[in-house]
Amino acid sequence: MSNHIFINEKINNFKKKIKVASDKSISIRSILLASQAVGTSKLSNLLESEDVLNTLKAIKKLGINYKKKNGVYFIEGFGLNNFSIKKKITINAGNSGTLARLLLGLLVKSKFRIRLIGDKSLSKRDFSRVIKPLRLFGVNIQSKKNFLPIEILGTNYLRPISYNEKIGSAQVKSCIIFCALNTPGITLINAKKSRNHTEQLLRSLNYPLKVNKTNNIDKISISGLSQFKSFKYIIPGDISSAAFFIVLTILSKKSKMIIENVNINKTRIGVIKILNKMGSAIRLINKKIYKGENIADIFIKSSGKLRGFNCPSYLNSSAIDEFLLIFLVAAKAKGVSTFKNLGELNKKESPRLDLALKFLKIMGIKVKRKKDNIKIFGNPKLEITKNIHVEKYLKDHRVFMMACIAALSFGGNWKISDRDSINTSFPFFLDILKSLGAKIN
Ligand code: S3P
Predict the structure, then answer these.
(1) Pocket test for ligand 1, best of 169, 173, 265 (most atoms within 8 A of CB)
(2) Fewer CB near the last or first residue (10 Å), C or N of the chain?
(3) How far is the CA of 98 from the centre of ligand 1 (A)?
(4) DSSP 229
(5) Strand partners, 376
(6) Residues marked as catalytic
(7) Domains, in order of start, for the chain
């Protein structure tokens, strides 16, 4: 099978109920925490994508057994810091920043050196954001200029820290929380708001972790070395995967969609808040709470009248993986949209901010950029007729999927390379598009 696709036709007029990929953040966290629990945890509806399968491979290499039976993953933990390795090993985190950064927090007592490597994209990402706090705990970490490969050697002399997490990165916050689990005493984190699945999961396990919420900062305190029992978890759908279909429906004519059973944690729904401010009518129905997480079905319909929006930067972290899609809606909106402080987007699987702006320009949209602040001049009449080739984007899954949504919403003749990029987070993405009537060759 060739590794590129062609899309030459828009889609409209679909009405469909779908389920999207399971939540990647919760899938990875639940596996890692199951590896630290006492007993056999049972994870259902786990995302079976490369990032998550690499997480399973990683715990296996660290001596944790798991098996899959009737769709459920059974993971056998022996409690905190009970990985069993007898020599230096190498763990490959593939494309996953979340796996690499969170796992480091669990390797902090390893008696043997562990070498962490990743693919081309992950090897271009800066790890100083986790190396710095881990060193304060007393962990021995070596790397060349803060990039992979990293070598970590644990210590029995971990000391609790008090840390200001200023980026608003859930990966950094979670790495510190994981290290705190293995550290005697109380670790304090003043964390700029970001997704809080790690905290929710630990609280659902009655772990002694307290969160004091203020406007912009969560003050988190974790009491280390408390064992927790194995657990059951049914992973809900991922809002970051749902967002592709939310935006496709908004931009297509005469269409409606329900996306069932999606995690709508407050720290994740910036995309819904922003798009509704731009004139869409996304509604959350059948709401429920599961282990502290909010879950709902998402109802969306085509939106004829979209308007520009000045996006306040406090929403950035809750929509961090969805900006590429929000930009497509801004491209179609009447008026100018502004976004501030989006530098973090360039630190993802690819330099996403640079790439997205390049594609918007190729699509015929006027864009202005001052440092990390951008202005998108929308055009409600946008129709693309030219040939566009999307390539050399470090196989960033979200860039591939954004390009598909742009092609199906605005027309033009698109060739999009590296279809296997979707295996990272959403292996059946193209199948859903086809079920809506999209012609993809
Ligand atoms: C994630 C956190 C975000 C996000 C990533 C997944 C997580 O990264 O972009 O896709 O599961 O913790 P940062 O924490 O670096 O912003």
Answers:
(1) 169
(2) N
(3) 6
(4) B
(5) 337, 367
(6) 321
(7) 4-22+236-435 (3.65.10.10), 24-234 (3.65.10.10)
